[in-house]
Each structure stands twice: as structure tokens, then as C-alpha cells.
Amino acid sequence: MKKELVVSGDEKGIVICWWYNRNDTHHFFPEPRTIFCLSCSPHNENQVAVGYKDGMIVIIDINRKGEVIHRLRGHDGEIHFLSWCPQLCEPQFLSDATSDTLGLNGELMTEDTAKDCFLASGSRDQTIRIWNATKGKGRFHFPAEMVFILFLVNFFP
């Protein structure tokens, strides 16, 4: 994937994309909310996850004028981080298996070729949530203390 894009957001809810290799910028206004963080998908160069101060997360398509693909609701405080899973995963991973699904480019994929994107989010509400970003559904949520304990157990035996 090309790394020629810089994305930023502001307190008014405006997302600015700058392709520095061609000195081109585009502005999008997906939601009238204060942006707290954002993250570009490693799997689809047109998708950006945007976290807002009120706990809302949206995934937008910058190739479609900032069209909102999914609204992810579940956090009660501002979103402090968004992190995409670096690999596409089988539909059975953290999700209910289905026979057919739409891929990242909108093409129908069969069960044996379908892969889903997952997104992790952390919030001031002291929870971490795992989302299926392909389907726009929450899969798990954990209290932050539990994640810290799991980190200690796994990395400092």
C-alpha cells in the first residue's frame, strides 16, 4: 500500500486528507463532532477510522467524499486510540461465520476466501473494544484493567 497520504482532523469535525506526492488535498465533514483521534486502514487505502470526543467512531471512505461506511457505538467517553489489526482474519475469528460476505472492494466473496478487518478502540470510559470493521459490529469489550493484567501475564512471566 502506498504511504503518500497524511490525514488529520479538528475540533469542528473536519477531516483533511493530503496526498503529498501530488500536493492534493480534500476536506470531508462526516459528523459534526469533535475529532479526538483517527487511524488509516492498512488493508484499504480509502478507509479511515475516526474517533470522536463523545465516544462515537465512524469508518469513512475518502474515495467517496468521506461517506460514512459504519457508525460504531458503544463507548461512553472520548476515543483515545484506534488501532487496526495488521492482518485480515477469517470470518470465524472473533465473529459469527457466514456463508457469503462483501469484501473490502464491495465484491461478493465466498466463505473460503472471505477475510474481515478488525479495529480496536480505547476510550476514557476505561474500556477497550474490538470491532469487526468489515461488518460494522462490535465483537468484544474489556475493562482496561483486565487488558493491563493480560499484558503483564503474557509479557512478564
TrEMBL record:
SMART domains: WD40. It comes from the Eukaryota. One of its GO terms (molecular function) is mRNA 3'-UTR binding. Pfam families: Beta-prop_RIG_1st, WD40. One of its GO terms (cellular component) is SMN complex. InterPro entries: Beta-prop_GEMI5_1st, Gemin-5, WD40/YVTN_repeat-like_dom_sf, WD40_repeat_dom_sf, WD40_rpt. Keywords: WD repeat. GO terms for biological process: spliceosomal snRNP assembly. WD repeats lie at residues 118-132. Residues 2-85 form the Gem-associated protein 5 first beta-propeller domain. This is Gem-associated protein 5 first beta-propeller domain-containing protein. The lineage of its organism: Eukaryota, Metazoa, Chordata, Craniata, Vertebrata.
